[in-house]
Amino acid sequence: MAGLSRILRMLAGWALLIPYTLLLYLLSFLPMPRPLYRALFRPWCRTWVHALGVRLQLRAHNRRPLPGTFLLIANHPSAFEDVGIPALFDVDNLAKHEVRHWFLVGRISAAAGTLYVRRDSKASRQQAAQQIAQALGRGRSVALYPEGGVKGMRVHPFRHGVFRISLQTGIPIVPIFIHYEPQQDFFWHRQPLPLKLWQIMRAHAPSADYHLFDAFDPNQFDSVESYCETVQKHYLAWQASYLGPDPDVPEQSDGAL
After folding, report:
1. Distant-in-sequence, close-in-space partners of 124: CB < 8 Å, separation ≥ 6
2. Separation of alpha carbons 113 and 132, rounded Å
3. DSSP assigned state of 179
4. Residue 55 in contact with residue 18, Cβ under 8 Å?
5. Residue 192 and residue 120: Cα distance in Å, rounded?
6. pLDDT score at 255
7. What's the rounded Cα separation, in Å, for the pair 144 and 74?
8. In what order do the strands lie in the sheet with 92-96?
9. CATH H superfamily, domain 54-243
10. Distance between CA 10 and CA 15 in Å, rounded?
11. pLDDT per residue over 53-99, tens digit each?
12. How far apart are CA 129 and CA 99, in angstroms?
């Protein structure tokens, strides 16, 4: 019965998503105020969540309210974050340059205020950092992934870019730890995007838990390196809590013979 209920919800989601997508695509050609377009974009992302049949939950562990403007960071195991993050947060996203050219979706994401970067280009990364700082200056929060792309289900080393921006602007970093089940159905092994969406849809009871923690204040750090290292350690602790020990890392001996 639960399976049938999920199928019906997905069918209802696709019945709404298809015309909604066409509407947003057509509106992207009009000189529409971005706040108004963004107000339509976020429900569109939530419609994607329903169409894929995913149970998306925001798990709030933060003891303090969110800052007015912030840099949102998250681990990046899947393509699902492209709709999961804006479904929950009013942020501008930083995405790889290729997303701009995706069929229909690329134009819609651009109209909603998505920023793009060529990861292998230093000049592009510098330009993206400037655009992020400008967006923050306008009061827009920005979401990005310090791993620099989809690396795997486990947390990989963070790049320094977001921490440098935070120190330079004084804008705090809000961390999200993402936990998917079943993990392998969400992990993007660089399959064609339609295939990955199909794998998520056919998964058994797919769930996405987005764990929200208190913001990191850049004023508490005196260097990009210490800032990055501290936040990475938190992510590794959350990973151990939600995903268990890393099977690729041998357990530490306690010194006993």
Report:
1. 97, 117, 118
2. 11
3. E
4. no
5. 21
6. 32
7. 7
8. 55-60, 207-212, 173-181, 71-74, 142-144, 92-96, 115-117
9. Tetrapyrrole methylase, N-terminal domain (3.40.1010.10)
10. 9
11. 999 999 999 999 999 999 999 999 999 999 999 999 999 999 989 99
12. 18
Reduce the DSSP state of residue 42 to 3 states and report it.
helix
251 vs 157, 233, 241, 245, 257, CA distance in Å?
19, 17, 15, 9, 15
Peptide bond into 182 cis (omega under 30): yes
Q: How far is CA 248 from the centre of its chain?
A: 25
Pairing of β 207-212 and β 173-181: antiparallel
* Mean pLDDT, range 125-142, rounded to an integer: 96
Task: Calculate helix-pair angle for 122-137, 161-169, nearest 10 degrees.
Answer: 40
Q: Given a cut of 60, is residue 250 above it in pLDDT?
A: no
Question: Is the distance from CB of 191 to CB of 183 less than 8 angstroms?
Answer: no
DSSP secondary structure, 71-118, as one string: EEEE---BSTHHHHHHHHS--EEEEEGGGGGSTTHHHHHHHTT-EEE-
Q: Tell me how far apart the alpha carbons of residues 154 and 92 are, in angstroms, rounded to a whole number.
A: 25
**Could you give the CA distance from residue 182 to residue 187 in angstroms, rounded to a whole number?**
9
253 pLDDT above the threshold of 90:
no
Name the residue ranges covered by the structural domains of the chain. Answer: 54-243
Of 123, 120, 104, which is closest to residue 112 (Cα–Cα)? 104
Cα(189)–Cα(79) distance, integer angstroms: 10
